[in-house]
């Protein structure tokens, strides 16, 4: 009997005992192809020898030192690596233990920036519906995932909410992609004006939406429009790339494909690839300069910031990605994955949309393709698909639709950057069989 508060309090998951490359093995000796990296975490696969060696070296030398007393070479090197490879003047890094902490840090850094430059009346953020920024209270507040928020809503800071950018769901049939994008930007500008631009800290958004709607990329020009509006109204643009960043979409940062540079970026999952818990915030020159010129202190901090062992793992992961040119692999295998999803799944009667970038793909399931009507959430189709895939030795990340019934069940696919063509074939073929089987059961039930 497990004494852990597991995600489900009704069941205990299989016990993972070992992992190698793209596979995890459970206590019964069964192997699973990890085609979602847990939650888009394991970008290098498991047990990469170079990462393990770097971690061993670090632990032998210096496992931990508190930042109130020391910095360490490894953390300094990781900061140098990340700021060297980031575009624009994202010249500073702050290291935490995961994605939610990174988002909390970004929100507080943005707020302190305005206090330091004499604009303390800026107290609110603008963020989008159907987004996820983490489960701590600040991150949950900017997030727009109602299912995750609803119990805690009374505890959350007030946020100005605008629509998600989701062309499959929200672009009208008679509307061009450009007109849809402009409509969203008009809505954003209107929301800024109604709230009072002088009261706003910044706009926070996932570049490619991950957990809530499944690898949903922005439309062309959308983020450039966001950048322009933030500049026009003196707001900061915070890109949450906790899930979609660090190479997952084929460029180190997903926003590079949109030709914008945010003021603050959060990264986490692919930063350390799951070898250690680590997240980070990258901040632009002007923000850190304002703090330097002002109080000379970022009023924040956790016990495990700049953890040397976590930094050693992340540095090794990032060095392997660069050395082995794995962003090219993400582009090549990503193209194969998307093509197969379109060709093999796209024709199925209950696959409404396949989308994403690089090795970050989403499949949205619908009961009716023409009207895009989702399945009844009571069917818990996503849970059936997950169980069926696990039975066949495949890990993908299915999620339910939204509470308002607007968005359907979807599946997130995020294999490691070392994934092979035949592993991609297995993922797509297995998913096809599972979707046919599970949607067939629902059709018989209806
Ligand atoms: N932001 C985004 C975009 C995420 O996808 C997640 C995690 N799924 C988080 C923040 C929170 O990260 P963590 O679970 O590491 O706290």
From TrEMBL:
<dbReference type="InterPro" id="IPR005814">
    <property type="entry name" value="Aminotrans_3"/>
</dbReference>
<dbReference type="Pfam" id="PF00202">
    <property type="entry name" value="Aminotran_3"/>
</dbReference>
<dbReference type="GO" id="GO:0008483">
    <property type="term" value="F:transaminase activity"/>
</dbReference>
<keyword id="KW-0663">Pyridoxal phosphate</keyword>
<dbReference type="GO" id="GO:0030170">
    <property type="term" value="F:pyridoxal phosphate binding"/>
</dbReference>
<dbReference type="InterPro" id="IPR049704">
    <property type="entry name" value="Aminotrans_3_PPA_site"/>
</dbReference>
<comment type="similarity">
    <text>Belongs to the class-III pyridoxal-phosphate-dependent aminotransferase family.</text>
</comment>
<dbReference type="InterPro" id="IPR015424">
    <property type="entry name" value="PyrdxlP-dep_Trfase"/>
</dbReference>
<dbReference type="GO" id="GO:0005829">
    <property type="term" value="C:cytosol"/>
</dbReference>
<dbReference type="InterPro" id="IPR015421">
    <property type="entry name" value="PyrdxlP-dep_Trfase_major"/>
</dbReference>
<dbReference type="InterPro" id="IPR015422">
    <property type="entry name" value="PyrdxlP-dep_Trfase_small"/>
</dbReference>
<keyword id="KW-0808">Transferase</keyword>
<keyword id="KW-0032">Aminotransferase</keyword>
<protein>
    <submittedName>
        <fullName>Aspartate aminotransferase family protein</fullName>
    </submittedName>
</protein>
